[in-house]
């Protein structure tokens, strides 16, 4: 059916900061909730009581709309066995299929992949790696053939991010480069990542180099509000970072239109919009977007000019139309 919006966050628990995220989302209306890794923070601790308390706090959200859950690094204490025994995601014939699965909402295709499982393997050419990359490409190929409005990837590892060390998350690409190649090949539109405790968007980049035109945008969704979320540790902001919001609990809202995807980062405290993005899906998207929002060209020009000078940055990623 049709889909209007989804909510996404990661790096979350039910304690002092995270509970406010839960309360805020209980007030919101949306079609799908995505928990993108590192939820409950060691939910197996205290003989599982931490996990029980977390899902009790999340009960209203878990029953309000469909929920997609991607395990994170902290859910890998037992090679994801507990996670796989408790959850089976859409399209998965068994818990073992949780590592990579797909689903569709309207004409938007989502592919979720547990790249943390790859990073945990000591051998690069392992069976886990081969199985994941083969299935991932199969899903991407089928998605492209279905002529979708958009293709979105959900993963629990940030391929690019700022951090306290030079290069940020670049080391992840030593193992995950083949997955980046596939996302570029099949023209993925949006990649939702996690693994760090802040919100960040990344400018067009591929193989560690700037890319003027790109089919996809990275958004790190790690602002859910986990324990030790607030940090004053020095952070090196990388050149590829477009927007980084730290020490501010929030969630990503994604709105869908036939011509574009709109992403918004919303602060939990007062629902203030701190970041806004447009991802164009066809060459005539700019006109359609302006028409949809009822903005005249001259006002749009002024808005874009102001956006460059303020904290609101709007990016348009144009993908060639499939029409000939």
Features:
disordered C terminus; 27% helix; 24% strand; alpha/beta; 7-stranded mixed beta sheet; 6-stranded mixed beta sheet
Q: Tell me the number of strands.
A: 15
What is the strand content?
15-25%
User: How helix-rich are the residues, as a percent range?
Assistant: 25-40%
With strands numbered from the N-terminus, the spatial order across the biggest sheet is 4-5-6-7-11-8-12
Order of helices and strands: EHEHHEHEEHHEHEEEEEEEEEHH
Helix-strand category: alpha/beta
Cα Rg: 19 Å
What's the story with the biggest beta sheet? 7 strands, mixed
What is the CA–CA distance across the termini?
27 Å
Whole-number mean pLDDT:
80
Instruction: Give the overall silhouette.
Output: globular
Number of helices: 9
Regions with little confidence, pLDDT below 50 for 5+ residues: 294-300, 305-324
Task: Explain how this protein is built.
The chain has 324 residues and is an alpha/beta fold. Helix content is 27%, strand content 24%. The strands form 3 sheets. Strands 4-5-6-7-11-8-12 form a 7-stranded mixed sheet, with helices on one face. The chain has a 6-stranded mixed sheet with strand order 3-2-1-13-14-15. A two-stranded antiparallel ribbon has the order 9-10. Helix 1 (18-26) links the parallel strand 1 and strand 2. It is globular and about 45 Å long.
